[in-house]
Structure formats: C-alpha cells, structure tokens
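Below is a filled-in request sheet from our internal design queue. Each sheet records the structural input a requester submitted and the sequence that came back. We keep these sheets so that new team members can see what a complete request looks like end to end.

REQUESTER: design group, bay 2
PRIORITY: normal
MODE: inverse folding
CHAIN LENGTH: 285
BACKBONE (tokenized):
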C-alpha cells in the first residue's frame, strides 16, 4: 500500500493478508488510561504473529511539561519499532481492544515517523474475535526490523501554534473531549478545567463509535458543522493527544490529510500556568 490508501482494514481482509508469505507486521497496542496494562491482555490472547508495543513507554515520551503522552524521542522510537520487527517500507497493521484510541495514536506515530504503509484494524481485537477468527497465546519470535524514523512526516502543533490556530479567522482547532470537560464543569485528570481559547468542541462520539467511522461524506459534514472548511487549516487536541490522534485519522478519512495534532493537548497546555483558559459552551468562554 502507498500510505495514501484507506488507513483502515477489516478483519477478514487482514486474515487473508496474514496468510500470505509476506504478511504485514502486526502490532498489538492494547492500552487503558487506567487499569491493568495492555500487555496482560496480549499475554491472555492476541492475533497470531502479533507483537506487543506499549503506547506509554514505546510510542510516547515520558510525561511532563509537554503533556501526558508527548512525542517520543526519535532514537528511542526507532529502537522500539525495530525491536517489534518493523521493516522499512513494509506494511504494518496496528490494533487495540476495539475503541480505536491506542491504535489511532500508533497509526499517527508511525506516520509522523515517516513510515507510510500503516493501517488500523477496524474494530480491533473485539471485531477480530466477533468474526470468529483465530487467536493465540503464543508469543512469536521477532526478527529485528530496519525501519528508520524520520520525524515530521505529519503536521504537529505546539502550544503556540495551537493558540494561533484557535485564534485564526481561517482555521479551526477542535477540542474532542466530552462537552463538560470543554466547558470547564469537570476535569477528572488534569489540574485545570476548561479549553484553549478559541477552540471549538466536537466530542469524539461525533465522528467515531467503538472504533468505527461513518462514510467520508458524513465525516465531512460533521467536521464542517464546527467550521472545518476546504483548504483552511485544521488541528485537534484532547486530554493528552491520544483521542485527538483518532480525530486526525477521521479527518484523513474525510479528505484532510493535512490535519495537525496538538500532541501536548490539554495536559500540556495547563502545564504552563501562564497560558489562558476559557470556560463555558463557546470558543471564547
């Protein structure tokens, strides 16, 4: 695949590809914001040939001033991907438990790192099992890969760029968190409630349901409803850049491969107490 093809793959199609001699590299990225680690799920059962990759430690940098899931160090990411068997130019498929969050961030990270042929298993582990396809507890041997990480292949926003986009007349910064968090009525994770001044709110259920996306024209309409226009800059953020990566994937499906991710997201924004915070149901608070 070219990297510009459909970034999603259905379970039956993946099963067919995995049966071929040159099957795609398969990465299990199951993850929870809180609770048992995803590796436990992997060891209890996974797709045949899948290698586990940890979202928190392999695909992201350590939490801090840049947010809870910042960009990884390129050299560390390259080491992790090579250890998982990722080869230069060879197709990769990523999957998670089924909500599509970790898989979307893994897709985005590999694309950002310059690895174009990567797809997300639609519906993840849940869809694979529902289709009655085989799974295993056997951990496969891994031949180290030779991928080279070249960061910057997808657009990224830092805090200043996110603020500028939110304030621009010709662009849109989308906050994809639940409406009460956007309005500043509650904040279960980060120390300050509210949103980036000027950002609009489109909660994730507006464009994805259990890792499944509506048709491209429906996605375009839903993003247009919050001001996304053809040719105008668009970016997305969430709490820590995971859910927003799924929004960027949805924007790709809607025909906007130029959509930018504010990786630091709200956790990075409020790490600096001098940054302004808006509350209430409108972009300006």
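RETURNED SEQUENCE:
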């Amino acid at each position: 695949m070219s990297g510009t093809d459909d970034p999603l793959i259905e379970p039956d199609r993946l099963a067919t590809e995995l049966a071929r001699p040159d099957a795609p590299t398969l990465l299990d990225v199951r993850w929870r914001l809180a609770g048992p680690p995803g590796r436990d799920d992997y060891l209890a059962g996974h797709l045949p040939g899948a290698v586990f990759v940890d979202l928190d430690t392999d695909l992201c940098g350590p939490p801090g001033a840049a947010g809870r899931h910042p960009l990884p160090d390129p050299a560390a990411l390259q080491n992790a991907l090579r250890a998982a068997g990722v080869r230069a130019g060879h197709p990769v498929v990523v999957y998670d438990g089924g909500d599509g969050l970790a898989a979307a961030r893994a897709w985005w990270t590999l694309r950002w790192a310059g690895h174009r042929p990567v797809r997300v298993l639609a519906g993840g582990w849940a869809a694979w099992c529902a289709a009655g396809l085989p799974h295993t507890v056997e951990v496969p041997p891994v031949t180290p890969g030779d991928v080279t990480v070249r960061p910057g292949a997808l657009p990224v926003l830092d805090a200043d760029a996110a603020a500028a986009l939110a304030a621009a007349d010709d662009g849109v910064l989308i906050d994809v968190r639940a409406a009460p968090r956007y309005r500043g009525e509650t904040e279960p994770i980060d120390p300050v409630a509210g949103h980036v001044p000027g950002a609009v709110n489109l909660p994730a259920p507006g464009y994805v349901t259990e890792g499944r996306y509506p048709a491209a024209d429906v996605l375009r309409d839903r993003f247009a409803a919050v001001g996304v226009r053809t040719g105008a800059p668009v970016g997305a953020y969430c709490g820590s850049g995971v859910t927003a990566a799924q929004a960027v994937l949805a924007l790709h499906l809607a025909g906007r491969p130029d959509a930018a991710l504010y990786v630091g997201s709200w956790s990075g924004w409020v790490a600096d107490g001098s940054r302004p915070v808006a509350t209430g149901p409108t972009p300006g608070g």
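SHEET NOTES:
- The two ends are 44 Å apart (CA to CA).
- Residues 101-112 form the longest helix (12 residues).
FILED BY: M.R.
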